[in-house]
Amino acid sequence: MRLCEKKYKTMNIKEKIVRLSQIKSKLYQKDFLLTWEKSEDDLKAILEIADLLKQLRDKNISPRVFDSGLAVSIFRDNSTRTRFSYASAANLLGLAVQDMDETKSQIAHGETVRETANMISFLADFIGIRDDMYLGEGNKYMREVADALDEGFEKKVLPSRPGIVNLQCDMDHPTQSMADLLHLKNTYGSLEALKGKKIVMSWAYSPSYGKPLSVPQGIIALMTRFGMNVELAHPEGYGLIPEIEELAKNNAKASGGSFKVSHSMEEAVKDADIVYPKSWAPYHIMQQRTELLKNTDSQGLKALELEALKNNFKFKNWEYTEEKKQLTKNADALYMHCLPADISGVSCNEGEVEAKVFEKYRIKTYHEAGYKPYIIAAMMFANKFEKPAEVLRSIFDKGLKRVSF
Amino acid sequence: MRLCEKKYKTMNIKEKIVRLSQIKSKLYQKDFLLTWEKSEDDLKAILEIADLLKQLRDKNISPRVFDSGLAVSIFRDNSTRTRFSYASAANLLGLAVQDMDETKSQIAHGETVRETANMISFLADFIGIRDDMYLGEGNKYMREVADALDEGFEKKVLPSRPGIVNLQCDMDHPTQSMADLLHLKNTYGSLEALKGKKIVMSWAYSPSYGKPLSVPQGIIALMTRFGMNVELAHPEGYGLIPEIEELAKNNAKASGGSFKVSHSMEEAVKDADIVYPKSWAPYHIMQQRTELLKNTDSQGLKALELEALKNNFKFKNWEYTEEKKQLTKNADALYMHCLPADISGVSCNEGEVEAKVFEKYRIKTYHEAGYKPYIIAAMMFANKFEKPAEVLRSIFDKGLKRVSF
Amino acid sequence: MRLCEKKYKTMNIKEKIVRLSQIKSKLYQKDFLLTWEKSEDDLKAILEIADLLKQLRDKNISPRVFDSGLAVSIFRDNSTRTRFSYASAANLLGLAVQDMDETKSQIAHGETVRETANMISFLADFIGIRDDMYLGEGNKYMREVADALDEGFEKKVLPSRPGIVNLQCDMDHPTQSMADLLHLKNTYGSLEALKGKKIVMSWAYSPSYGKPLSVPQGIIALMTRFGMNVELAHPEGYGLIPEIEELAKNNAKASGGSFKVSHSMEEAVKDADIVYPKSWAPYHIMQQRTELLKNTDSQGLKALELEALKNNFKFKNWEYTEEKKQLTKNADALYMHCLPADISGVSCNEGEVEAKVFEKYRIKTYHEAGYKPYIIAAMMFANKFEKPAEVLRSIFDKGLKRVSF
Predict the structure, then answer these.
(1) Half-sphere exposure of residue B332, counting CA atoms within 13 Å on the CB side?
(2) Which residues have C-beta within 8 Å of that of residue C209, sequence separation ≥ 6?
């Protein structure tokens, strides 16, 4: 813990609410689909609200602003962590989670999406969506839902326009990257303190295949907004969606940071302040996979998986080891992961990270994950209230206990 | 929107509560299983309460009357719309939904039903049941549950007698037909205004098979209560449960309306005010299907499906088209559907309704569907409170905000 | 109903709260994993709190102490009764249930458990766990979760330490046995009145196989704490975990009761006050089964099942019949069961109990089951509040209505 963090920690809740009230965010009644559609002020406001909600709850003050209402969840891929984060956020604010089960594996589009979006929303305040299986599909699907809700609200089908929270798509994983950013902010004391820090988003070896691109894409697109020196390291051929790499480059230029792509984990981690070693499938493989999945070509899928795993196998040395850690700043770069990590000798034979290294930072990765429920709650809060600072002040003044002691 | 509707809309909430207090309904502590077991006053009370609950929520007033309590749901068939409607209703009043999963496909009866009904009800206020797969079984099952709850309450096993809400059975689909009726009432301004209006419940072609009879049965049994001229149109051999057709006839006689069965969609829709084109399986096919399902005769089921689809195929011209719409009153009969509809060229190649016609009334079908959560909430409300008008007045006076702004 | 019960029943809520405040329990912030880890005062406090919560709710007073919070459930085996009891308890106190689905059949241990336990607990107040499939595993798993939560709380990952409630493991089924004890207490009027009463926990024939040992183990370990004469009757070779039989023996010695194992249902039930006839798999079979399950040896499992069923078949005469009932105290021993029972001629051809006998005590078994939600709520309550009597007094004085009439 550094000095600046201490100062922030001692800042009291009322002071933080004042600071929040000075941020000019435009989150009211807006979906949260991609961090790069949001201004720096928007992102700062989310971080501040998340922090305040966490502190209120820690002080046993209930920020329950809904007396009733549904938070719908649509998980088109398995999830434990994000599911619990979403449920926790909804519950904290007073909403009940209602799952929308899509047992059918086909990608519903068009009329079905338009109709269903309205049918589940008559008394809903939010819809959280995870759809990360198909490149070019997940975010598009969210926008189809959004358009349907716009129409439903405009035509008075819906009494209010439910907000959409992107719980991971093919392009971004904003609840993860924002939780990661809050973790960094609290670790270093402020967003200011992140300027000039070197963060390495590195591909790492994993015995499994087809991991989505949204985490590395979310990280390079977000961290370049705050003047960090972001390095994306991966073996040749393991690139991300080119447009998002381009975006990261432009972000860095604008924020006074830098963005660089390189092809050696060893080189990349040198003098790094932060290292985020995580596996993903190459962009071109994901493209092929999407086509095969669309055509339900199970043989093609098997062949592609074999090929991809064989290719991964060549890069087993992309493991974040103690030896590599020694090359980082003070041999102690902050290790980050969205969890679960593939830990060599623990969750797999050979994986993303050496057990000893993971263990050293394990509790810190738990703290990192612990911000996600509050980030989601903050996204909901900022969507629902035009002046979130005022609502938070009123919650604080009222001081309703979460648990009646 | 007609004049009378405008008048109703301008009537304020307090006036509506007074009007409700004058209706002599007997819904207190009664299950809602079939609309034809309820008096006209009962049905009117449900409509008024539903409307009031909707208005209160639209004004950000929370009608949460339960501080805790469970609303159990038993879905013996898939459902999205009704599931969300039930969850929304329960949540609006303050209850948590608890699903009872019956993964076993057999029809549980007797001892198991008697015991389970009690085991899930110790702290339950309502049980919502969908059971529409087997002719002669669904409604019977609900009554078995009801008897078990009666015994449990009488023998002090249960602190209160949970109310049962029929979420669709083999005979009726009261939450749907009552939502449809509220839609008509609000479209035409009053129940009075429905007198003499011609509504056509018409079979329509669908490429799928085995759709339940409960919607058309519910519609003919309910709409004949209010002086409407109800015409049931279907190809020869596609009749409904004969007793329910008989019931509709008697209802019409008593209410000053009419009930007629005919066999041409084209003829039927002439001068119709309202058209409800929807597919269903013929009664005699459903009877055979029930026998085969009971005997788990999968080969027999396949054969029956083929036969039924082949038969349906002969009636492809039972599609509600622009051409047929031109025959209706002012070429603009109100189109109704419980959704999802089989829309030709959209959700299937050839189906119940032409895309252009559906699109014209699409948003109106969304409004129609939007009443269901409030109808269910009204059924719960009327079951729980002897004097619902008084409770609503107290809710209105208190004015607790649903969302704290 | 006996005299002493009447006296207890007329004791008012305030007097009972005073009585509770005099019990020196140490349940605050402690998991409830095994009854034999708890003092007699702990157990008494749970019974009193459960009774008080039930009475408050029966008087339409809401004991909602949480304004928000999650009660996580982990069911590694199917459950309807306990699932609903847990949901009811959580809801009564103001918590939302969030299910943790473990679709994978393998036994997760080590790192995965440690991490997941924290990931689901950021805003959780309780975790209820059922894990009764594997001898030597269920309770061990709960302790792994407990250790992980301890670490998470200590390292400030978790804002509070969620309490764990054992919803059935390989060793004990404390929410069942405590509900059974409360049933006995209320039937006979007091715990004092149980002294010297003879209770027979008897194996009974069932056509199914692999029923867990936790119920009989829980019963013999708990009822021996209160001076009862406990007899465990089973065919040779159907013993329980030896350490738990040993424990029961020691408990009986300490409490002034007795513990005896015998091998004839007929002999055992003679002069019994209470009879609990229930099937279970022999300890040594469960041990073999665990090994086979671990090795996913499906052929071995089938062979074992056949052998076990064949063996059961030899003991069909272990049915609790009217004839055997005639041998009990006044031919009217209280019949108990955790439900569902295998009732001869009703739920199976030949089973644990004759239909006529079951029917006579059926409603009493419903009452027995009805205590479970309150026992679970009491376990949560006692874990969360250092001085439960004070919190209950404040709830009673406030008198917030559960349903607003």
Answers:
(1) 3
(2) C281, C305, C308, C309, C312
Q: Are C273 and C333 in contact (CB under 8 A)?
A: yes
CA neighbor of A125 nearest in space, from B402, B145, C326: B402
* Mean pLDDT (whole number) for C192-203: 98
The 3-class SS string of A346-369 reads CCECCCCECHHHHHHHHHHHHHHH
**Sign of the C-alpha dihedral computed for residues A359, A364, A367 and A371 taken in this order:** negative
Domains and CATH numbers, chain A: 8-172+372-398 (3.40.50.1370), 174-369 (3.40.50.1370)
Query: Residue B326: how many CB atoms within 10 A of its CB?
Result: 10
Residue B27's closest CA among B37, B19, B18, B17?
A: B37
**Which helix (H) or strand (E) is A275 found in, with range?**
strand A274-278
Which of A335, A233, A322, A220 lies closest to A279, judged by CA?
A233
At A206-226, the pLDDT tens digits run 998 888 999 999 999 999 999
List the structure tokens of B211.
């759709």
- Rounded Cα distance between C72 and C63, Å, is 20
Report how far residue C44's alpha carbon sits from residue C85's, in angstroms, rounded to the nearest whole number.
Answer: 20
Q: Which stretches within A34-94 are classed as H helix? A: 40-58, 81-93
Give the whole-angstrom CA distance, residue A234 versus residue A263.
5
A345 and C CB contact within 8 Å: no
Specify burial of residue B29 (Cβ count, 10 A radius: 0-12, 13-18, 19+): middle
Dist. CA C215–CA C155, nearest whole Å: 37
Q: Which residues contact C47 (CB under 8 A, 6 or more apart)?
A: C178, C181, C182, C185, C191, C378
Contact yes or no for A340 and C159 at CB 8 A = no
- Interface partners of B (3+ CB pairs, < 8 Å)? A, C
CA geometry: angle at B303 spanning B297 and B309, to 5°? 130
Q: What is the pLDDT of residue B10?
A: 61
pLDDT of A111 reads 75
SS (H, E, C) B123-169: CEEEEEEEECCCCCCHHHHHHHHHHHHHHHHHCCCCCCCCEEEEEEE
Determine what percent of chain A is predicted with pLDDT higher than 90: 86
pLDDT for C178 beyond 60: yes
**DSSP one-letter code for A295:** T
| Residue B170 near residue B138 (C-beta atoms within 8 A) | yes
**CB spacing of C62 vs B65 below 8 angstroms:** no
Contact A365, A359 (CB under 8 A): no
pLDDT mean across residues, chain B: 94
Cα separation values, A217 from A165, A339, B245, Å = 17, 16, 62
- In angstroms, the separation between the Cα of residue B117 and the nearest Cα of chain C is 11
Find out whether A225 and A38 touch, Cβ atoms under 8 Å.
no
From CA C392, how far away is CA C17, in angstroms rounded?
Answer: 7
Residue of A nearest to B61 (CA): A67
Mutate to test the interface with A, among C56, C102, C111, C122 (most CBs of A within 10 A): C122
Is residue C230 within 8 A of residue C202, CB to CB? The reply is no
* Radius of gyration from C-alpha coordinates of chain B: 21
Question: Dihedral sign, CA of C115, C116, C122, C128?
Answer: negative
Lowest mean pLDDT among A287-291, A336-340, B65-69, B191-195: A287-291
Contact A119 B81 (CB under 8 A): yes
Backbone angles phi, psi at A131, to 5 degrees: -155, 90
Cα C177 from Cα C179, distance rounded (Å): 5
3-state secondary structure C104-123: CCCCCCCHHHHHHHHHCCCC
| Whether residue C293 has pLDDT greater than 90 | no
Q: ipTM exceeding 0.85?
A: yes
